[in-house]
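Quick one, probably user error.
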């Protein structure tokens, strides 16, 4: 009986040692076991090569209600928007150069208006931007959510302005190809 208990204990210990070694090797599949191989590499898993638009473009969240009216717009008046988004849109759209920005509503073909609300509890900025023609009919709109803290609220608003300008540029480019 003693011999059987000892034999069982030895088999259990050998099994545990084998199991522990197998578990250790499966946790590090890139490590080599022979001494002549290359040093182990620790690469993080990825979902494959990055494709599609760059990080500044973001997902296209804009909607065009009338492509022809959008293409006819030459001058835009930008109304005041919370968190200085309107100032940053003036900069972003001014750099693009597609539209002439005017300071009076009566001189504009269209008006850009919207909101840029921050949620301190959720730590994100929710912005909605609309372009409407002289008659008040909707031409284009975009909705952007950006996290902040980090980055700072001002940086999130800058990102929002760049995204809105990029989405508008993509929409106009697609409309001109049609």
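Nope, works fine. Designed sequence:
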């Amino acid at each position: 009986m003693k011999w059987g208990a000892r034999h069982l204990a030895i088999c259990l210990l050998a099994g545990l040692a084998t199991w522990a070694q197998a578990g250790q090797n499966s946790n590090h599949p890139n490590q080599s076991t022979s001494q002549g191989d290359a040093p182990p590499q620790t690469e993080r898993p990825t979902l494959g090569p990055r494709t599609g638009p760059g990080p500044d473009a973001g997902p296209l969240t804009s909607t065009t209600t009338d492509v022809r009216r959008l293409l006819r717009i030459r001058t835009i008046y930008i109304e005041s928007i919370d968190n200085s988004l309107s100032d940053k849109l003036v900069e972003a759209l001014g750099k693009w150069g597609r539209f002439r920005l005017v300071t009076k509503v009566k001189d504009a073909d269209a008006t850009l208006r919207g909101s840029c609300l921050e949620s301190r509890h959720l730590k994100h900025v929710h912005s909605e931007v609309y372009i409407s023609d002289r008659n008040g009919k909707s031409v284009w709109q975009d909705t952007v959510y950006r996290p902040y803290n980090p980055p700072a609220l001002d940086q999130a608003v800058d990102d929002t302005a760049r995204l809105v300008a990029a989405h508008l540029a993509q929409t106009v480019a697609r409309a001109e190809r049609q």
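The mean pLDDT is 81.
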